[in-house]
Amino acid sequence: MELLRFATGGSVDDGKSTLIGRLLYDSKQIFEDQLEAVQRTSTARGDEYVNLALLTDGLRAEREQGITIDVAYRYFATPKRRFIIADTPGHTQHTRNMVTGCSTADLVLLLIDARTGATEQTRRHAMIASLLGIHHLVLCVNKMDLVGYSKERFEEIREDFTSFAERLQVYDLTCVPISALEGDNVVEHSKKMPWYGGLSLLDHLEGVHIASDRNLIDLRVPVQLVIRPISNEHHDFRGYAGVIASGVLEVGDEVVVLPSGFSSHVVGIDGPDGPLQKASPPESVVVRLEDDLDISRGDMLCRPNNRPNVGQDVSAMVCWMSERPLQEGAIFAIKHTTRWARARVRSLQYRLDVNALHHDSKASELELNDIGRIHLRTTVPLFYDEYRDNRETGSFILVDEQTNATVAAGMLRRPTG
Amino acid sequence: MTYRLSHLETLASEAIHIIREVVAEFERPALLFSGGKDSAVLLHLAAKACWPQRIPFPIVHVDTGHNFPEVIEYRDNQVTDLDVRLVVGSVQEDIDRGSIVEQPVPGATRNRLQTYTLLRVLEENRFDAVFGGGRRDEEKARAKERVFSLRDEFGQWDPRAQRPELWSLYNTRHRPGEHFRVFPLSNWTELDIWQYVDEQNLPLPSIYFAHRRMVFRRTGMLLAVGPWTSPRDGVASEQAFETTVRYRTVGDMTCTAAVESHASNPAEIIVETSISRVSERGATRADDRFSDAAMEDRKREGYF
Questions:
Q1: Using CB atoms within 10 A as the burial measure, which of A132, A233, A351, B160 is most buried?
Q2: DSSP of A16-57, one letter per residue?
Q3: pLDDT of A189-211, one tens digit each?
Q4: Residues B104 and B242 in one domain
């Protein structure tokens, strides 16, 4: 069974939590005691109907304020697929959570209220999904029951959003008219919208083709750990543990180790359940090489004729996640693949105006939830690819060296001359 | 051949990656081991992550003194088989020392008292990263917890001040005195655990499988008749009777309830779990029933 990870986005009152509650409920993932707890709380709060949002709003403050604060992970399975949902809050001030949710997602599900259509927040979330390299976007036009299940209204919203999405890198956009509250087109095709010829939301999620999203071309294995057992049984064992970030590794392959540049051949690959002939992403493996090379954590295995970029001067899009603004000249710790280094912000090229998709090159700093393009100088060379080609070797985080807080999510761009 | 991994292979690789990050980036890791199925899977994955080396960190068992003997036997077998170091934190010793006070009720649960012992053991051993078998599908507050979850110098969790966790780039930076709880099984569900146990042929304590036992009903739950819990005199609803049961979670004998079941192996449990309509914790853990926010409150204090 295949795993599909998706993130949800949309504005505050678009009914995300209700939709997720509905997906879990209708696919029979909600247990009776959890439902009874929700019914009790709903009654106590004086809600008119069983508030399915209470199934996902986990923290005390969220239930009290009736809002979602933090990314919540939810799990369900159908006979066809296993799903992980990153349920992200819709408040502007929590946009960093959308970035977090998208960073591990294959697909993003955006909710729109059929009465209001796409808002600034919807467009912002679509932009973030595109920036985070999500190939599949599903637009759920929710609350169709409140617009009389109108085909015209749905088409209007769809056309408006489609023309916006043309300016983004979205490869696969699907629009579904739903009512999360009534369950229309969520699991079953709704009889109330006979004009809609597409799949129900769940049918779409079960079938969407994600296997090709992985990069099986460019072999990259960041070395996570060198395994050298101190025992007689495995006296000469020396293995390099790591995740296949991209590409396919096979026993017998010639590989080059960065930064040393020495090459060797793969004599063994051990997966979690034993020896493998071939390994592909995202498998955790231990690689053994023919030659005894000096390799340590942070090094990278690749192919002689297909190497990543190597450089200390890099350009990236960042989402700023700290209350303290990003300023030119500041120094941070950077984690990229399996290595830590330090990085200085050499310059801020522009701040992205998410609503107008306009570059504001006069900006002198990035504030919380801002997205912008920066140049960094790192203390050691990074072995990296452009984020859009390779999420694993194209992403990094910046960490404040005083507070240890994670302050930025970064996506590397093509090297500039 | 296809390059697609199954969902279990994907989840196992993710867990192994997390375990290896800890081994690479922390000085004094440890693994919390209750003897339950989640910690059994976790220990098994730790062995795979370090193979062919033996597990280079100790396992920690917080012993409430109210154990199922089958679980202690299982724990000791695992320690021998994997040649791993065991650190035991005894709640009874902390009570005897007067560090914590037990509620003056016969058969009172020691669930909440464990937090003191746990934090004492972590501090004494200066562990800086502690693996736990927690899963996000277990409970609402857990659903929001990070894989690398920071604890302050008092062992407390602040759900509002969690660091964003992006891609698989874990921020392991912390100040002296702070530590991380690390949850490699965050994305697993109860069903995944059982499927993995079945697929890998993992041994588990025998109480997970159907067996005959003397039990009684209290507040809708089936509790074992044992040295610490027994039917109260004069309470008609608490008649002891023998039936076929199994346990879905392993915990303190005073607050872990059995379910009536004839499932005697993982495959039969999978069938039962797939059609079960009551969640694992709801069915069998009195400790989570206190309030809507029971787990959040205990986690804030430093609980598992």
A1: A132
A2: HHHHHHHHHHHTT-S-HHHHHHHHHHHHHHT-SS--GGGGT-
A3: 999 999 999 999 999 999 999 88
A4: no
B189 to chain A nearest CA, in Å?
7
Contact: B166, A406; criterion CB under 8 Å: yes
Best residue of B2, B136, B169, B179 to probe chain A, by most A CBs closer than 10 Å: B169
In chain B, which residues have pLDDT < 50?
A: 289-291
CB A135, CB A208: distance < 8 Å: no
Q: Which two tokens stand for residue B65?
A: 């003194």
| Residues A318 and A363: beta-carbon distance below 8 Å | no
B19 with B144, same domain: the answer is yes
3-state class (DSSP) for residue A153: helix
Helix (H) or strand (E) holding A95: helix A95-103
C-alpha A337/C-alpha B170 separation (Å) is: 10
Q: For residue A306, what is the DSSP state?
A: B
Domain encompassing residue B181: 7-191+293-301
How is residue A325 written in tokens? Answer: 């603004």
Instruction: Give the pLDDT confidence of B199-218 residue by residue, as tens digits.
Output: 999 999 999 999 999 999 98
Concatenate the DSSP letters of all residues of chain B into one string.
Answer: ---PPPHHHHHHHHHHHHHHHHHHH-SSEEEE--SSHHHHHHHHHHHHHHTTSPP-S-EEEEE-S---HHHHHHHHHHHHHHT--EEEEEHHHHHHTTSS---SSTT---TTTHHHHHHHHHHHTT-SEEE----TTS-TTGGG--SEEEE-TT----GGGPPP-BTTB------TT-EEEE-TTTT--HHHHHHHHHHHT----GGGS-EEEEEEEETTEEEE-SSS--PPTT-TT---EEEEEEESS---TTTB-EEE----SHHHHHHHHHH--S-HHHHHBGGG-S-TTHHHHHHHHT--
Q: Which of A255, A340, A344, A326 is nearest to A293 (CA)?
A: A255
CA B215, B221, B227, B230 torsion-angle sign: negative
Nearest by CB to A74, from B143, B175, B283: name it: B143
Which chain A residues contact residue B140 at CB under 8 A? 55-59, 72
Mean pLDDT score, A50-79: 66
Q: Do residues B66 and B177 share a domain?
A: yes
pTM summary value:
0.91
Going from the N-terminus, what domains does chain A have, and what CATH number goes with each?
2-213 (3.40.50.300), 221-302 (2.40.30.10), 309-412 (2.40.30.10)
Q: Do B187 and A75 touch (CB under 8 A)?
A: yes
Q: Alpha-carbon distance A333 to A344, whole Å?
A: 9
Maximal C-alpha separation, chain B: 67
Identify the H or E element spanning A121. Answer: helix A120-131
Q: Say if residues A283 and B13 touch (Cβ distance below 8 Å).
A: yes
A323: left (phi over 0), alpha (psi -120 to 50) or beta: alpha
DSSP letter, residue A290: S
- pLDDT of A410 > 50? The answer is yes
A41–B48 C-beta distance less than 8 A = no
Using an 8 Å Cβ cutoff, are B128 and B29 in contact?
A: yes
Which candidate from B52, B136, B171 shows the least CB-CB separation from A399? B171
The enclosing domain of B151 has a CATH number of 3.40.50.620
β-partners of residue A375 are A315, A347
Answer positive or negative: Cα dihedral of A168, A170, A171, A175: negative
